[in-house]
């Protein structure tokens, strides 16, 4: 009896195991029939549909990029009009220029949304192949240095410079609080996007205030520019600092043009935006540079800048690491 009762459960377990194996095999067959459904696999299949091996600069690309057929692009898509979402679609200066570049290269450029201050880390970890996100070309970023701490955080990047912009200030409309430039920001509250050139410039100007015996600027840093605008709109700060195209767009569009006004005259610290390519990827960097140059020559570049009213930001020559 004892032997009999021990054998029966064993047989039962055997049948269950066989059934489990059969289920796993069936699942594997279904997955095999459907193909790999991971995001990366889906992106690869979609890229193969649009890959153009006859595109003018396809052969300039590294072999692995040619085979893959796409580049993962890190971008903070909350920065109107440079990059943003509208009705579920990506729009703006950078996506339009990226589309023109992709035609020259014959591959897709897939935009991935992230907060701006995580983009350099995303390049370091190879989450993204490149970053295109109104990123100002600076020596610190080229060398992989965190400008706020001075610490080395990675190998750095090479920049393909494609726009030249400066930093602007804006306030609530009709409520400038006496602000007419950075010299009058001492003791005032300022909102910026974290990790941007505006953030760096605000820290510099605040130190100057203290150096000359004035009260420091009270700086509030946010994950994105939209949050900074909301803070100003509700009266939580006296002004916002951001790149000129973003500031101009906010002033012209927010509240039908009734929310904000530009102060301080011409933009300060004009510097280039660059496509960031991790160090050690010179072939990819040079292909992107050649693609931007072709968009300038064929007139697509000028059309994009005219569409977004940033013609004054045009570059005549596509520099590598032209920032200071």
Describe, in plain words, how this protein is organized in 3D.
With 324 residues, the chain is α/β, with parallel strands linked by helices. It has eleven helices and eleven strands. It has helices spanning 2-34, 39-50, 63-68, 93-105, 119-124, 139-143, 197-211, 225-233, 244-253, 282-297, 300-307, and strands at 70-75, 78-79, 83-86, 89-91, 108-113, 130-131, 157-172, 189-193, 218-222, 239-243, 260-278. A five-stranded mixed sheet has the order 9-8-10-7-11, sandwiched between helices. α7 (197-211) links the parallel β8 (189-193) and β9. The protein is globular, with a radius of gyration of 26 Å. It starts with a helix and ends in a 17-residue tail after the last helix.
Strand order of the largest sheet: 9-8-10-7-11
Identify the overall geometry: globular
Total separate domains = 2
Count of helical regions? 11
Q: What do the pLDDT scores average to?
A: 88
CATH class of the largest domain: Alpha Beta
Distance between the termini: 88 Å
Report the sheet-strand fraction.
15-25%
SSE string, helices as H and strands as E? HHHEEEEHEHEHEEHEHEHEHH
Low-confidence stretches: 1-19, 27-36
Gyration radius, in Å: 26 Å
- Tally the beta strands: 11
* Residues in helices, as a percent range: 40-55%
Shape-level CATH architecture of the largest domain: 3-Layer(aba) Sandwich
Q: Could you name the CATH homologous superfamily of the largest domain?
A: Periplasmic binding protein-like II
Structural class of the secondary structure composition? alpha/beta
Largest sheet: 5 strands, mixed
């Amino acid at each position: 009896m004892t032997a009999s009762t021990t054998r029966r459960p064993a047989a039962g377990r055997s049948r269950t195991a066989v059934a489990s194996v059969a289920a796993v095999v069936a699942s594997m067959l279904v997955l095999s029939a459907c193909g790999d459904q991971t995001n990366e696999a889906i992106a690869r299949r979609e890229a193969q549909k649009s890959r153009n091996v006859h595109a003018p600069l396809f052969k300039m690309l590294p072999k692995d990029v040619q085979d893959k057929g796409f580049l993962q692009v890190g971008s903070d898509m909350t920065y109107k009009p440079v990059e943003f979402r509208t009705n579920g679609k990506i729009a703006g200066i950078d996506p339009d220029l990226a589309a023109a570049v992709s035609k020259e290269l014959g591959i897709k450029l897939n935009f991935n949304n992230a907060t701006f201050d995580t983009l350099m880390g995303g390049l370091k970890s190879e989450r993204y192949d490149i970053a295109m996100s109104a990123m100002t070309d600076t020596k610190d970023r080229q060398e992989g240095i965190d400008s706020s701490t001075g610490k080395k955080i990675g190998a750095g990047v090479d920049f393909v410079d494609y726009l030249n912009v400066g930093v602007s200030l804006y306030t609530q409309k009709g409520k400038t609080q006496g602000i007419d430039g950075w010299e009058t920001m001492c003791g005032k509250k300022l909102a910026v996007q974290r990790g941007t050139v505006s953030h760096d410039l605000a820290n510099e100007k605040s130190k100057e205030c203290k150096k000359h015996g004035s009260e420091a600027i009270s700086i509030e840093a946010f994950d994105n520019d939209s949050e900074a605008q909301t803070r100003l709109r509700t009266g939580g700060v006296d002004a916002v600092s951001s790149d000129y195209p973003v500031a101009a767009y906010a002033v012209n569009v927010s509240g039908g043009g009734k929310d904000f006004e530009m102060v301080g005259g011409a933009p300060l610290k004009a510097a280039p935006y660059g496509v960031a390519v991790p160090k050690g990827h010179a072939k990819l960097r040079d292909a992107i540079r050649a693609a931007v140059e072709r968009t300038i020559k064929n007139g697509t570049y000028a059309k994009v800048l005219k569409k977004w009213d940033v013609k004054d930001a045009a570059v005549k020559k596509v520099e590598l690491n032209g920032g200071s």
